[in-house]
Automatic annotation (TrEMBL):
Matching InterPro entries: Acyl_CoA_acyltransferase, Bact_Acetyltransf, GNAT_dom
CDD domains: NAT_SF
N-acetyltransferase domain sequence ranges: 26-167
Pfam family membership, one: Acetyltransf_1
Protein name: GNAT family N-acetyltransferase
Gene3D superfamilies according to UniProt: 3.40.630.30
Record keywords, A-Z: Acyltransferase, Transferase
Length: 169
């Protein structure tokens, strides 16, 4: 029996892709909409943010893009790039609005961490925006250490950085 979007557990496949893969376009398009809705022109605008890094940085041997598919629909994903020689930076972690609150972002994080280890990284660095409290909660629940004062106003901080030691995870 196939899982429906309202069920907590969804059968899915995670695979590696490139940014120009047609299956990556739903993730990128939805991220652009979400960033625009949440931030408008803050941080230089959505287009600047989405084009900040060349596509090659998300490809082997130092990067990766992972997509999570359910019944051929891209429902979640994330990417990693080299931040330093031993640290991967996670970017573009996203879950389709109709499939949120089902553990898919945690599945993407786990897959990204596994991929980072395979690529030889021992640490992770990532940031989220001040208007994404659900992302902050996810990172705190999954062992990421905030590199900012959790009691401070997130709007005053801007990008909220987190780190994680992969060897400890």
């Amino acid at each position: 029996m196939s899982a429906s979007p309202t069920e907590t557990h969804l059968e899915h496949t995670i695979f590696s892709a490139q940014l120009d893969d047609p299956r990556a376009q739903p993730l990128l398009a939805a991220l652009a909409v979400e960033y625009t809705e949440r931030y408008g022109d803050r941080f230089g605008g959505t287009e600047k943010e989405m084009l900040r890094y060349p596509a090659a940085e998300f490809m082997a041997p130092t990067g990766s893009l992972l997509l999570l598919l359910h019944e051929n629909l891209t429902i979640a994903g994330g990417a990693l790039r080299q931040y330093s020689s031993d640290t991967a930076e996670f970017k573009r972690i996203w879950t389709h609005r109709d499939f949120r609150r089902r553990g898919l972002a945690s599945a993407v994080l786990t897959a990204l961490e596994d991929q980072a280890r395979r690529l030889g990284y021992s640490k992770v660095y990532l940031t989220t925006g001040p208007r994404q409290p659900e992302a902050v909660g996810l990172y705190l629940r999954t062992g990421y250490a905030p590199q900012f004062d959790l009691e401070a106003d997130p709007e005053a901080i801007g990008h909220l950085p987190f780190t994680k030691d992969l060897a400890a995870g």
